[in-house]
Specification:
The structure holds 2 protein chains of 2 kinds. Chain A is α/β, with parallel strands linked by helices. Chain A is built from 24 helices and 20 strands. Chain A folds into 3 domains: 177 residues, Thiamin diphosphate (ThDP)-binding fold, Pyr/PP domains (Rossmann fold, 3-Layer(aba) Sandwich), CATH 3.40.50.970; 168 residues, 3-Layer(aba) Sandwich (Rossmann fold); 171 residues, Thiamin diphosphate (ThDP)-binding fold, Pyr/PP domains (Rossmann fold), CATH 3.40.50. By secondary structure, chain B is α+β, with helices and mostly antiparallel strands. The chains are: A alpha/beta, B alpha+beta. The complex binds thiamine diphosphate.
Chain lengths: 588, 218
Amino acid sequence: MTRQMTGAEMVVQALIDQGVEHIFGYPGGAVLPIYDEIFQQEKVQHILVRHEQGAGHAAEGYARSTGKVGVALVTSGPGATNMVTPLTDALMDSIPMVCITGQVATHLIGSDAFQECDTVGITRPSTKHNWLVKDVNDLGRILHEAFYVARSGRPGPVVVDIPKDVQFATGTYHGPQNVEHKTYHPQVRGDIGRIRAAVELMARAKKPVFYTGGGVVNSGPEATRLLRELVAATGFPVTSTLMGLGAYPASGENWLGMLGMHGTYEANNAMHDCDVMIAIGARFDDRITGRLDAFSPGSKKIHIDIDPSSINKNVRVDIGILGDVAHVLEDMLAIWKESGHKADEKALAGWWGEIDRWRARRSLAYRQSGETIMPQYAIQRLYEKTRDRKTFITTEVGQHQMWAAQFYGFEEPNRWMTSGGLGTMGYGLPAAIGAQTAHRDALVIDIAGDASILMNMQEMSTAVQHELPVKVFILNNQYMGMVRQWQQLLHGNRLSHSYTEALPDFVKLAEAYGGIGIRAEKASELDDAIDAMIAAKGPVLFDCRVANLANCFPMIPSGKAHNEMLLPEDATDAAIAEAIDAEGRALV
Amino acid sequence: MVLWFRGPAKAKSLPLPLAGEGRGEGPERNEREAGDGKTMQPGSVYAIKEGKDRTEQHTLSILVDNEPGILARVIGLFSGRGYNIESLTVSETEHEKHRSRITVVTNGSPAVIEQIKAQLERMVLVHRVTDLTVTGRSIERELALIKVRGSGDARVEALRLADAFRARVIDATTESFVFELTGRTDKIDQFLLLMQPLGLVEVSRTGVAAIARGPEAM
Ligand SMILES: Cc1ncc(C[n+]2csc(CCOP(=O)(O)OP(=O)(O)O)c2C)c(N)n1
């Protein structure tokens, strides 16, 4: 199907042809023709944000909560530079996103024109791919290629930079049919020989563990279903990274909890002591591995990933299987069943016995006594009150993020959105807006810190305008808690600039935005306050005053191995001060 | 478009040229054992000790779609991830198909080399990456234009050496020559070293172009 139309019309037509229902954006001179087209149609709904960074994270939240490609539209110059953080965030966390940027007219490129910047140059390292469109006749094809690249293989963000004269020019539009990419064809089926070898290794394992990541969620619902089936068929224990939470249910029998720097004692020790590790859609990030030369020293490692550069990058593996998680798990499960493999029941019973001993250390323990609300308790209450609903959780970055991951039990994939790779404070509120846009009837909660929430606070205004009833649950400890924790661990308890002297009154702030403000200061009033938040029809800022000095444990201190965790009961002031040696101090 | 980068000059002692240089030479493998040869994991904040890995030099041939920005992406990958570029040449090789060939000479531990290839392969505009060092049967050539200024004995000696290296004189004045020399990188390095005391004033080099031997295309 080819038709004549203007570049601006092509943009809207391509969005419609790609099935896009919502986009997040902010207008400006270089995208006015596109905004004019958006005005004259009803199929694509535009959510006006208050800062372009908000548009980017909203698109991420939308993508992560639906499995679809998120779309953002921003103007040239500052509009584009404001997108750099969300693009990088999406690249690190493999979130499919198409970002359309306006550009000055082609004849002005390079002249330092008003609001000109080298958008493709600036965003090149922050995107999976990007395009500057110089001919309107290429625009349709490029837009459809952009969607294809964003969602295929390891998903990621792409930028299509469209000069203003190209938006005005008339040309031939190429629809999504027959858009076949010349070079980009990621491999989805895994090598059967390797899958067979992996299955044999698994069948002989005495102390196996599944280590799953965001790739399972990205691969789609089928991957989640197959993972659950494989775990059930083998009886192996399963842990997950921050990004993979929900792929295996937290209530599942074989669940060990999250692993990594703030993971559970049982998950990290199982990783350390296992004899066969099956990594699925996870990338051996440094928050996961701890000290590499002591990472799971005795295990044979199987790694399933769609990205060839993730295999053998940080950790050498014995069997690398390149392919899409769902496709590989399908074959793996079929081979496991047809060859009549059974896990070594006796060995597995012993292994679970060991795991139970680690569990008995109760590494997530905390003490809630008196009226001061412990942050962990607040999350636990929030979980109990929302678990039976269709609830989506986003977070900002800091201690609250880790507590959310530790204490909120995720049963389904795509319900948990957090900035894992880049660790972007300010992600949570716009991401919640994105998720709420896609799921109008669901309960969407941003678990926030008092410092992070101020980074994109302006998006409250977006939520109010578009009647998106997001709930922001602020664990207000008046500190940049995670920074303070590290200063206590590494810098002699000198709390340099990690205390926020002048926080706003969050209740009044909510009201100023036209939202609802709620405050809870005592443990005894927490439940009622949470009920009120859930019942509220509009956006809420919930100021939950928590113990100011609580720290996040368990923790693998920098430079230590999985089996050298600092547990809450051991975390005395002296132990904290000495937990990280001189070498570990140089690490992040 | 041809573009060429060179890493820091390596201090090597160079043997005199062999007359037959340039014919039938086998694949070159530049291996270096630094320290105790213990393999370390690359790319982690936890690998803070100085790398003690064996470093290998590899020549990679990368077939790409000749779109704007592809060169910047490839170079950005190397600089952004801290990989070395010893030499890099780019040129369109198939006009109708809109394809270019990028030849990169790089060095790193075996794990880093593997990672470089995987990173290149997943790029959207990359058709194919071939490691000519691993395939083992490849020929590498570089072209250099070399200006030497001098008179008297030095001038005569320069001409004599140029003859021994099979360099051609492509420009001459009463006080200078421009030589054109083709060969492997180490041959050109040798020639330049010899020209240094004889009045070397300027050099322009293409960087390495490489191709596999035999009838098959990449
Ligand atoms: C944009 C950005 N700037 C700085 C940081 C570094 N950082 C990580 S956690 C943190 C403190 C977060 O404080 P808060 O939001 O109050 O959460 P808490 O740790 O107290 O739960 C900071 C500053 C970051 N992750 N992102």
